[in-house]
């Protein structure tokens, strides 16, 4: 064959191969987008999702949609310009604000709260700022039924005689920790928390349409509502809540993982909880040295619910915001991740706990198990029974209601269903620990560690209980 012709054949063969490879990648991406859209559309059709979704893969947004309604009457369709409350994720703004001031030398995480808020009772001299960030202050929660504004809540704080526990000794997730962080920021900066967030966080992060504490007069605010069509209030008892669009939320997610506002060192302080599985200022996640590996945070407020998941090495960000909570955002997110990975994925199902919590309040542990088993047999395709999380969430719900005996029974049953899961034995150990049954707590923590040798939480409690 003529050498020139052979070179041309090789050249065009190479180009054809590259074109085919590119076409294959494009088709693969289109397939992912189509599957994600089918998942979301089906969930909406079944009444299991109303809200906005953004998915980025390899650092590029491949899917963004708004589906459902912005009002309870279902007369106004959502668009991607609508802003949503994001529940506890909005607490990231005060946590990042505290770390910004720490990096500027304007406070130390070891400073006592009394240094900045001297008007508070004597307990403020026991609580350090780091305790507020890690929810280990010992403060009781906000009195949501009676506190109508910041002033009311400050009056309630002034009436507290003693803390629920010694600061740093236990973990209790509640909003008085958040409230005091915001007041400390105001004391140091001399401006309102709202102004601080707008000037020093939203603008630098490129969040051009976010609003702190939206009111009835603000436009393009998705209103949350329950399944009976009842609209929730828009204004909250304590202030400082940022409502965001999808683009705002994505800008914030990138600001965190790219360290636009605070350094890797400061980020590490507020992404790690006091123990694994506990909330931190940024919710949760992981870092490898100065590199972000993951950032995960969920938030719920009335019928608003939001979830942010960033898997940094893969360039994946998944954002879900709903104004009609169904308790299924994690299952939707898992399915989207599976689609991105090219793996089989589960269709969206109803949440057992969110659907039946009122009914469970009237049942014993044994009755809950019987109800769960019957529902699983008759409606297995409608509710999520695929993994341990359903009963695990139920057990923690019962613990939050101080129903420890019933919680123990639920966790015990879960270990029978999922005997190879270290997590379910860890949960059972925690329930026994809260019951002050140290021998059974130790037994289950050891079983958990045997199944999951990386469980640092189990190691901590085993060390304590062995003493």
TrEMBL record:
Mind telling me which Gene3D superfamilies this protein's record contains?
DD-peptidase/beta-lactamase superfamily, Tetratricopeptide repeat domain
Which N-terminal stretch is annotated as signal sequence? 1-28
Q: Which GO terms describe its molecular function?
A: hydrolase activity
In this chain the TPR repeats are located at 422-455
Q: Where are the transmembrane segments?
A: none
Q: Which UniProt keywords apply?
A: Hydrolase, Signal, TPR repeat
Name of the protein described by the UniProt record: Serine hydrolase
The species this protein belongs to is Mucilaginibacter rubeus
Lineage runs: Bacteria, Pseudomonadati, Bacteroidota, Sphingobacteriia, Sphingobacteriales
